[in-house]
Amino acid sequence: MRFDPATLRRQFPILGREINGRPLHYLDNAATAQTPQSVLDAVAAHESRHRANVLRSVHALAEEATEAYERARADLATYLNAASPEEIVFTSGCTGAINLVAHSFGAGLAVGDEIVISQLEHHSNIVPWQLLRDRRGITLKALPATADGRLDTAALEHVVGDRCKLIAVTHASNVTGAETPVHAVVAAARGVGAKVLLDGAQRVPHGPVDVRALGVDFYACSSHKMFGPNGVGALWARAEILADMPPFLGGGEMIHRVTLADTTYAEPPHRFEAGTPPIAQAVGFAAAARWVAGLDNAAVAEHLQRLAGRILDGLAAIDRGRGRIRVIGPTGLQERLPVISFDTAGAHPHDICQILDVHGVALRGGHHCAQPLMDFFDITGTTRASLAAYNDEADVDAFLEGLEDALARLT
Amino acid sequence: MSDDIYQKTLLRLAAEAIGAGRLDAPDASATVDNPLCGDRITLDVRLDHSGRVAEIGHHVRACVLCQASASIVGERAAGETPARLREVAAALAAMLAGRGPTPDRKWADLGAFEPVAGHKSRHACVLLPFDALTRALDEIEAG
Prior knowledge:
Strand order of the largest sheet of chain A: 4-10-9-8-7-5-6
Helix content of chain B: 25-40%
Strand order of the largest sheet of chain B: 1-2-3
Distance between the termini of chain A: 43 Å
Number of domains of chain B: 1
Low-confidence stretches of chain A: none
Oligomer: heterodimer
Order of helices and strands of chain B: HEEEHHH
Helix content of chain A: 25-40%
Strand content of chain B: 15-25%
CATH class of chain B: Alpha Beta
Structural class of chain A: alpha/beta
Shape of chain B: globular
CATH architecture of the largest domain in chain A: 3-Layer(aba) Sandwich
Distance between the termini of chain B: 45 Å
Mean pLDDT of chain A: 97
Radius of gyration of chain A: 22 Å
Number of helices of chain B: 4
CATH architecture of chain B: Alpha-Beta Complex
Shape of chain A: globular
CATH topology of the largest domain in chain A: Aspartate Aminotransferase, domain 2
Radius of gyration of chain B: 14 Å
Largest interface: A-B, 18 and 19 residues
Largest sheet of chain A: 7 strands, mixed
Strand content of chain A: 15-25%
């Protein structure tokens, strides 16, 4: 049966809003997805019934809060098919997860060791490695992109050398939507004994991920891009890797015993969760994971592919062969997420987005925290429409209509 | 409302691109990026013997707001002292923040940006050429 987003839309109270007197058409999901009522309810229920700090106090609320927090960890482990909940570390977000790896895994690297990233990465998967390079004297290398905005896996052979200790790449580009052929990356890494980290921020909203089937070592993701609250994310890593990693941040709840002279540390995952964690957010994150897992994700993917095709066809129709609209990324629908970026000669992304806002259409314009990719395409930014399960034809049509208006006014 | 921003005056200013192009022998140049969107302006300044601005040149990769602002700088900065240009930059920032009127007659074109005041995320677009101008003047004063 064909997926009907109408029933889904009713679960998102924010989609009932009007912006500038028009219905909201939210197409900025790659930045932050909206939150269904069930997730809002889960957070509110936790905060109104079970709010307390975790892992320390013995009173009833603390027991309940700890149980909820650890149950959230188990739910995330299920979503990612981790071997155990202890392989899930709650972080402040995807950026926090990658920084954790850069510090803790990075602490074991020596001068001359190599880390390989790519031209497609979000700044969150570039800057932590540059900082590590500057701290530890490692060498940072980058895989190129192809002309259609995919990872150039043909370059793996000569970029990944014997000193490579980690390949850290996106699971799917937040600009082009291109999905990474993970098997090729894993094969290259295994050939030299390197680990693999995937930045899963864009991929996780589109259904459960099987980290073990992917064969990677680290997986970073955030809650707010998969319909959950802000302020929480997760790092998955194989248990034996986490066990060998030193702490990142120090503080309460990550220790075994503290004296004024020295400290011994808790076992993972708590070793990496210094201070009071984002408890209600983790509960909401888990509720979001359950919500996504409960969808017919194959039908949702088909629905979103249809909408992505409608956007690509619409852009071509608006352009009418004049070459003023250039899709930055794949122009086909295979091995991609419904994230579509484009460059418009003579019209700046922020100006387009500002005019689209008048139409009630929320888009993102700019470099999308991926300036090296913008440099690769010799542009300062793109306009990006990114879809989530609740988007429908009316959203796409409002976007295309608004874009025609913007281009008519700006060019 | 966003619709108010893109008025004919602003679009005309952007299209005119007064001062576009680099100067051959500037006294100072400054390149400023807008970290929000990656836009960039490089602005050249040449002073006359009295210390007033003689000529402005700029290279802009940015939105219409920044292009229009650079165009105003390109047209109006000549003949002004560095101190006066700093006053105009501060007055423009105050106008956008809702804390002051539109700068005076010679700079009245800046009134085209009044509708931007309600869109804080776009203030930096308008101010970018003035930031570059100020930095270039700083460089001259620093010797």
